[in-house]
Design goal:
By secondary structure, the chain is an all-alpha fold. 71% of the residues lie in helices and 0% in strands. It is elongated. The structure holds protoporphyrin IX containing FE (HEM). Protoporphyrin IX containing FE is lined by residues 29-30, 33-34, 36-37, 40, 84-85, 88-89, 91-92.
């Protein structure tokens, strides 16, 4: 007979101090995945202004790019996309059973590499933004 007992919800954010590296990787992967989906809809709506003509499209893009908050959000988007890709590749290895003993280290490596790439991108995204 199987035994059942109430261990509470592991996903309960009240227990975040108990989260291991793998749990944070799971939280960040979900968060970044759904932010990317949200961005995709925003992206399509911006692209669709081209249906009103080239001038409308140019005005939309130059209006958006002239806002510092949009430039900062672009850096955030890069951070989210790079982490999702790097951690996604890590997850594919985990699913294949490759490097399981180093899965915490590979999560930290994804975070550090994301940080380095994001910092390196700042001059490109934020030059002339303020
Ligand atoms: C090279 C690019 C990408 C890689 C390698 C990648 C990899 C992955 C992997 C392996 C998973 C499954 C995670 C699991 O085992 O639970 C996943 C989930 C997901 N990805 Fe990606 N992904 C990429 C790009 C994208 C993009 C561009 C989007 C959105 C437009 C996206 C949205 C999502 C979402 C929504 C999930 C499900 C999150 C959840 O569990 O609720 N991914 N991704």
């Amino acid at each position: 007979m199987s035994e059942s007992y109430d261990r509470g919800l592991v996903e309960d954010f009240g227990r975040w101090t108990e989260f291991s590296a793998g749990m944070w990787a799971w939280v960040f992967h979900k968060f970044t995945g759904w932010v990317l989906v949200g961005y995709l809809f925003t992206h399509i709506s911006v692209l669709s202004t081209s249906l009103q003509g080239a001038q409308a499209y140019n005005n939309t893009l130059s209006g958006l790019e002239s806002l510092a908050v949009v430039r900062i959000l672009e850096v955030g988007l890069l951070a989210v996309a790079v982490f999702h890709i790097l951690n996604g590749i890590r997850l594919l290895f985990v699913d294949l059973g490759v490097g399981l003993e180093a899965q915490d280290k590979s999560f930290y490596a994804s975070l550090v590499l994301t940080g380095v790439i994001v910092v390196a991108s700042v001059p490109t995204f934020l030059t002339g933004a303020f």
